[in-house]
């Protein structure tokens, strides 16, 4: 009798333990399922959600889809939007496209612009194009979009910039754009720059461009500087060249290179 009672108690204990384990497992499964539904994971099973949970998850998914549509995400499902939401999304899309047309026109859809917006965008692009034509650099300049007055200003600026490049040796010099008077002016400036380079022993000196009087003057300076170097015991004194301009700087300097855009004298 006692043995039967003990067996009954053990049976009840094992049954209770199995029930608790099953309940705990089912509870964990439901928690994981709820988390999957909240995160939008494929493991979401709507059938084991409570009514309240299902309603909240549905609302959340709708809001997430609306957000995706507002930001033009590829997974946006327009069929899930209400009429008012569809209008809101359409307005947002037009505004985003307008911003693209105003800032990065190469990736905008001009067919979505209203007539007033298209006019505004065209005005912005005209201003940017004019700036690119005036300043140059990496921007694209389309001269066909310029008015006659704007084109005249741009051509004048380019000629002025080219003249400065030729005179200073900085940037690209196109001698074909110079007028006869400008070419004469540039030749005089370049001659003077070359003469200073030869006198100072710095920069690039091309003695072949010097006139006889300046060449003689430079040779005299060279001899005087070489004599000073010998008096001072400088290593330059050992140079066998008679032109000390070739000792330091000038045409004989190892790192001397012609300035960009330089030309020979006519």
Write structural notes for this entry.
The structure is a single chain. With 266 residues, the chain is mainly α. The protein has a domain at 178-252. It is built from seven helices and no strands. The chain has helices at residues 2-39, 51-70, 83-103, 115-135, 148-168, 180-200, 212-231. Helix 5 packs parallel to helix 6. The protein starts with a helix and ends in a 35-residue tail after the last helix. Mean pLDDT is 77; it is low at 1-7, 9-25, 240-257 and 259-266.
Described by strand count, sense and barrel closure, the largest sheet is: none
Indicate the structural class: mainly alpha
Low-pLDDT sequence parts: 1-7, 9-25, 240-257, 259-266
> Which of globular, elongated, flat, extended, rod-shaped describes the shape?
elongated
Number of strands: 0
User: What pattern of helices and strands is seen along the backbone?
Assistant: HHHHHHH
Head-to-tail CA distance between termini:
133 Å
Average pLDDT number: 77
Give the helices and strands, then pairings:
Layout: H1 2-39, H2 51-70, H3 83-103, H4 115-135, H5 148-168, H6 180-200, H7 212-231
Helix pairs in contact: 5-6
Overview in brief:
With 266 residues, the chain is mainly α.
Index terms:
7 helices; 266 residues; elongated; single chain; mainly alpha; disordered N terminus
């Amino acid at each position: 009798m006692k043995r039967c009672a003990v067996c009954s108690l053990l049976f009840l204990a094992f049954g209770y333990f199995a029930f608790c384990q099953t309940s705990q497992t089912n509870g964990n499964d439901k928690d994981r399922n709820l988390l999957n539904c909240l995160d939008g994971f494929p493991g979401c099973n709507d059938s084991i959600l409570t009514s309240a949970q299902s309603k909240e998850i549905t609302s959340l998914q709708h809001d997430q889809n609306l957000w995706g549509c507002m930001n033009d995400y590829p997974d946006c499902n327009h069929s899930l939007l209400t009429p008012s939401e569809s209008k809101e999304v359409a307005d947002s899309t037009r505004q985003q496209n307008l911003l693209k047309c105003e800032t990065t026109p190469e990736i905008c859809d001009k067919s979505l612009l209203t007539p007033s917006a298209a006019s505004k965008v065209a005005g912005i692009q005209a201003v940017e194009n004019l700036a690119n034509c005036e300043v140059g650099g990496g921007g694209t300049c389309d001269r066909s979009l310029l008015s006659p007055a704007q084109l005249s200003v741009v051509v004048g600026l380019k000629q002025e910039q080219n003249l400065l490049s030729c005179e200073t040796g900085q940037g690209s010099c196109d001698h074909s754009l110079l007028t006869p008077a400008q070419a004469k002016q540039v030749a005089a400036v370049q001659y003077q720059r070359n003469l200073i380079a030869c006198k100072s022993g710095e920069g690039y000196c091309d003695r072949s461009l010097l006139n006889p009087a300046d060449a003689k003057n430079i040779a005299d300076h060279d001899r005087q500087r070489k004599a000073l170097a010998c008096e001072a015991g400088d290593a330059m004194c050992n140079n066998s060249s008679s032109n000390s301009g070739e000792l330091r700087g000038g045409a004989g300097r190892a790192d001397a290179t012609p300035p960009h855009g330089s030309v020979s004298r006519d």
